[in-house]
Design goal:
heterodimer; A: 89 residues; alpha+beta; SH3 type barrels; six-stranded antiparallel beta sheet; 2 helices; 6 strands; B: 686 residues; alpha/beta; Rossmann fold; 4 domains; three-stranded antiparallel beta sheet; 31 helices; binds guanosine-5'-diphosphate
């Protein structure tokens, strides 16, 4: 999945508001990863950051999800260039 | 009935069952159990269970464990359901189908209620129910729970005797398949699970690495454990993450399914909810709006409730008077007027505040703002280890801990909920006000004292209580409830216009729960307390109330209590007050009135204040020194002086353990703090 190394990976909390990224890695404990994946936040999912740096507000597969700093730090995303990011798939 | 949180499950359940519902608890856990009855197409009753919402069968919280256990047929109190209605949010189909997908593995009859069709359409999606039905092979009924649409179709499907089983085609990823097969066999042979449940459990064991948590009340056999350990060992050495593989392959299957079912009729721009969120979750405006809403809540609880509370108070008094007039004098009359009406009356006056708090809670929940409020408050609250949802229950506890504790039901995390319940009574409730007012009046008599000083002391008490609540929350999160995950991931549902009917229903439900409590356990305790203050009677019928109460069991208990409270500067008369005010804190004031032989009119504490100021110890030293007044106030800040709260905590936590712990820790703290305060004050010469 994380094929291009053109874009550096950033933590979800560092993704600027309005930007879209593709989840490329989940860090943190197993049970966190499992929960995040089950909520559709797994690897390869597209995330659009709506706002926030400490507590993040994101759009994943059409659902608004709020994450606290700890959670957002454990999700690494690869920013997608601002050309109208494609749909979920 | 199962589904993700916010899929509209409760709304659909209410629409199906109307008022024929029973709300209780699952034995042994603090999870709410809702059972209702609906009618089949042929008029036969069907029992519907509203199971807790969850995103996955890999349970994390007690709620989710209940869901899994019921579906796996593990709970003795709830038989495995004949049919499973999966409520699915059509606007979030992909994520919602994850749970459905897991449930289909169980091979039981499933009906899918494709809810929120209106929201999906509004978001520019066309969801093809027939296509989904064709793909999965189970009935799929499009619904709009809030508009009552789809109920007929749903009933029709529920009435079918020959529900088709899912034509479910999901291939377990090849590398994991042998492990699933072997575990399934072991679970059937050694743990006595039915084959399909065994398969689902095997999949969970491979998804969730905590096998003890998955097995729950049915621990795994030694053999199964070995097999599991063996496979895990293999994966660790090959460096593969099978949990991720399993979840991903499910998502891939669901993604493929959705491509055929969902068509987007137009490109999705920022929705209305996004535009509202841009303001309400803004780092400045968000706080401003939040502050205004909370101020409105606080203001309404205190000022709008005042009129109705007075009214109820007067009605209670009128009722007592009427009984007084209608009955012959005697013990029965006393029991009714003082014990029953007086006791329950002191608690029922809080009904308006409860209704107002739950009006706000209902309003915020049904518009979708509640999740945002939790989002905004999460950061400050997480400093003491609580989550954002604890804020409103704690705020409500300034009015009265009972609605506050009842409002903790919106906290999904069981530990956070319990901690919130444990500390909520430390927030200074309005029943403490009369005690504070009397003590401040005694402490600072006369009209020349600037009001600011009195208000300052009052404020100090509120600050003390609040600091106590947060301090103990911090402590409990570090000791009793250690290790809760510090991650918060929360779905923010789309904004909706408020639905008055839903809010009314919510208010009625809570008010009824409260009244039921008042009518049972609070009534019983009131009668006991009344008995203790009335018996044994003095033989002399001309005895004054003051002599009578001194002679009663409560009076004797006051004497017995004196050695314990003497280090705090309290004598046996204050001891009686402490005992009687267990009914409700403000009873302290009327008890003091009785003990010191002063008729206390509601709004004028001057005679009582003067009586208290002239009270003395047997040796002649004044009893209510400024230090004692202060100590007594601090005592009321911390002590668990409220039987109604005890009763509600018992109800909400489903055990006596927590209310008893709460009495112990709060009253213990009160004693300790007062001891230090009083002794230090004495040492400093006050
Ligand atoms: N527009 C719309 N809103 C709905 C529908 N069903 C439920 N809701 C709303 O969605 C919110 C969450 O519903 P609720 O029943 O509490 O969800 P639960 O968490 O699954 O029990 C409530 O505000 C409902 O009014 C529907 O079909 N259409």
């Amino acid at each position: 999945m994380p094929s291009s190394s053109l874009n550096a990976r950033v933590q979800l909390c560092q993704l600027p508001a309005g930007a879209t990224g593709r989840v490329c890695q989940l860090t943190g404990d197993e049970s966190f990863c499992q929960r995040v994946r089950e909520m559709g936040f797994g690897e390869a999912a597209l995330v659009t950051k709506i706002s926030g740096t400490t507590t993040s507000l994101c759009l994943v597969k059409g659902t608004r999800i709020a994450l606290n700093h700890r959670a957002a730090m454990n999700i690494l995303v690869e920013p997608i260039p601002a050309v109208r990011a494609g749909r979920t798939e | 009935m199962v589904g993700n949180p916010n899929s509209g499950k409760t709304t659909l359940f209410n629409a199906l069952t109307g008022l024929r519902q029973k709300v209780g608890n699952y034995p042994g856990v603090t999870v709410e159990k809702k059972i209702g009855t609906t009618w089949s197409q042929h008029g036969k009753p069907i029992q519907v269970i509203d199971l807790p919402g969850a995103y996955s069968l890999a349970a994390r919280s007690p709620d989710e464990a209940v869901l899994r256990d019921v579906l796996f047929g593990r709970r003795e109190d709830t038989p495995q359901p004949d049919r499973i209605i999966c409520v699915v949010d059509a606007a979030n189909l992909e994520r919602n189908l994850y749970l459905v997908h897991q449930i289909l593995d169980l091979g039981r009859p499933v009906i899918i209620a494709l809810n929120m069709m209106d929201m999906a359409a509004a978001a520019g999606m066309k969801v093809d129910a027939a296509e989904l039905e064709g793909e999965l092979g189970v009935p799929v009924i499009p619904c709009e729970a809030v508009h009552g649409k789809g109920l007929v179709g749903l009933r029709l499907a529920m009435s079918r005797v020959d529900l088709p089983l899912a034509r479910h085609s999901w291939d377990v990823p090849a590398p994991v398949a042998p492990a699933v097969a072997e575990l399934q066999a072991a679970l059937t042979d050694h743990d006595g699970r039915p084959p399909l449940v065994a398969r689902a459990e095997a999949l969970l064991l491979l998804t969730d690495l905590d096998s003890v948590r998955v097995a729950g009340s049915r621990p795994l056999s030694h053999r199964t454990h070995e097999i599991l350990a063996h496979w895990r060992q293999r994966w660790v050495t090959t460096g593969a993450d099978w949990s991720a593989t399993l979840i991903r392959s499910r998502h891939d299957a669901i993604g493929a399914l959705c491509r055929g079912v969902v068509t987007r009729t137009r490109e999705q721009g920022p929705s209305r909810s996004d535009r509202i969120d841009a303001v309400l979750c803004h780092s400045v405006w968000g706080w401003a709006v939040f502050g205004v809403i909370m101020a409105a809540l606080f203001f309404s609880i205190f000022s709008l409730a005042e009129g109705p509370m007075d009214f109820i108070g007067r009605q209670v008094a009128a009722l007592a008077d009427w009984v007084q007039g209608a009955m012959a004098p005697g013990d029965l009359r006393l029991l009714l007027t003082k014990g029953v009406i007086g006791g329950v009356g002191t608690v029922v006056v809080f009904l308006p505040q409860i209704l107002i708090l739950f009006f706000f809670v209902g309003l915020l929940e049904s518009t979708g703002y509640m999740a945002r409020a939790a989002f905004i408050m999460d950061r400050p609250m997480s400093k003491v280890g609580l989550n954002g949802r604890s804020f409103i229950p704690l705020l409500g506890s300034y009015a009265c801990a009972i609605p506050g504790i009842m409002a903790t039901r919106t906290i999904e995390n069981a530990r956070d909920r319990l901690v919130t319940i444990l500390v909520a009574p430390l927030m200074s409730c309005s029943a403490r006000l009369p005690v504070y007012l009397l003590m401040i009046a005694t402490l600072l008599p006369g009209d020349t004292v600037p009001a600011a000083r009195k208000a300052g002391i009052m404020l100090l008490m509120y600050v003390l209580g609040t600091a106590g609540a947060f301090g103990f929350a911090w402590l409990f999160k570090r000791t009793l409830f250690k290790g809760a995950p510090p991650h918060m991931i929360m779905e923010l549902p789309p904004y909706q216009p408020p639905r008055p009917w839903e809010i009314l229903r919510h208010m009625a439900e809570r008010a009824w729960l409260f009244l039921k409590n008042a009518g049972t356990i609070i009534l019983a305790i009131s009668i006991v307390l009344w008995f203790l203050t009335t018996y044994p009677k003095l033989p002399d019928p001309t005895a004054t109330p003051t002599e009578q109460i001194a002679h009663s069991f409560a009076g004797q208990a006051g004497h017995a209590l004196e050695p314990v409270i003497r280090p705090l500067g309290f004598d046996w008369r204050i001891g009686i007050g402490l005992i009687t005010s267990f009914a409700a804190r403000e009873v302290f004031v009327s008890s003091m009135g009785v003990i010191f032989g002063v008729e206390t009119p509601e709004d004028n504490t001057t005679p009582l204040r003067d009586a208290l100021r002239s009270a003395h110890w047997p040796g002649g030293a004044p009893l209510f020194t400024p230090l004692v007044c202060l100590t007594l106030m601090v005592y009321y800040v911390f002590a668990m002086q409220c039987m109604s709260t005890v009763a509600v905590v018992k109800r909400e936590t489903n055990s006596w353990r927590w209310p008893l712990f709460q009495i112990f820790y709060m009253t213990g703290t009160a004693w300790l703090v007062c001891f230090i305060l009083y002794q230090a004050g004495r040492a400093l010469g006050y």
